[in-house]
Amino acid sequence: MLDFQLEEKLTQFASALVNQEQAKTIVAPQEPASGFWFGGGNMIAVDGKLYVVGRFRDAGDSRTGTAAGRRGWELAIFESTDNGVSFEKVLRFDKSDLDMGDRTVLSIEGAALHQTFDGIELYVSTEKDNLGYPPGFENHLKPGTGVWTIERLAADSIAGLKDAKRETVLECDDPQFVHIKDPFVYDTPDGDFLLLFCSHPFCWTSSNTGFAYRRAGEPNFYAPVYDFFSRGFTWDVAMTRGTCMLDVPKAGAFANQAVTLMFYDGGECVRNLDEHATAVKRPRGYSCEELGGAGYFLDGDFANIERLSKHAPLFVSPHGTGCSRYVDVLQTADGYYATWQQSQPDGSQPLVMNFVPHEVVAELLA
Known about the structure:
Blueprint lengths: L3 H14 L6 E4 L9 E3 L3 E4 L2 E9 L14 E9 L7 E7 L10 E11 L4 E9 L18 E9 L10 E5 L8 E9 L5 E8 L7 E7 L24 E9 L11 E9 L23 E8 L7 E2 L16 E8 L3 E8 L8 E7 H8 L1
């Protein structure tokens, strides 16, 4: 565990990346209204271009069945050739494009791009029909809803992903973690690869964070660990969903210390609850309107994460519900690109971005 001064520097670094006031919209949702958003993905840089992946989501409610409407209806990849000034859609997938045989897709969820020596991997989670719940829990699956799994597509280029073969890499029949979704990726300094994900139990009472490990040069993942980042005790007691790991530059106060930031989403409850009339007014975070937090781990020991946001979230939108979630950070030769979904006055959640140059980061970590 770091001392207070170093933790403060990490907090300032994270807050400079996820700067709510400096954020600019890069992909807008289909409508400026509650329940509409674009995001749940990440950004990579390939041959001087930026690519961001996410899904368009329309208003819907799992209590009435995601099959009743469009909900997560399109996965899209956007390209920027001007260092993030503008983005243009270059690839899209409908629900039917991501079907797995008779496992038809009801809703597209989170996704992640990953650059390898051979090309590009795309990990995408979808809610599918015809899977069912584990034996003994069959009747807990609500009509019109499905079970989430994560698929992998691989190609030598972004464009090649459209026709790439799909293979299921993560699914679970344990009632504690049956829904597997929202992948994010991390390459270790040793060249190994972590595919991280969110899970939900059959009873929909929490979000958890797990991972699957793939050694450098090997094609397959080891058996996944479903819950390594425990939920918190205050504002994040109901949900702790990791979204990004970022290695802190070995510079300034951290020149001799290997530190990695973990960004995550949290909330106090699954549904928005009525507050006491005289209670302190604050965003509490709930399903689809989570707030943002951060932690860190040392020397690659990601099984022991220390929270920077123990008692309150670090990232709260100044608009709408305060929702600020799905943070991703890309380091490039010029600096750091942070993206996340940010609640707006109209209730929508566009994908927003903030860029921080290396020289600013050096000052923060000095």
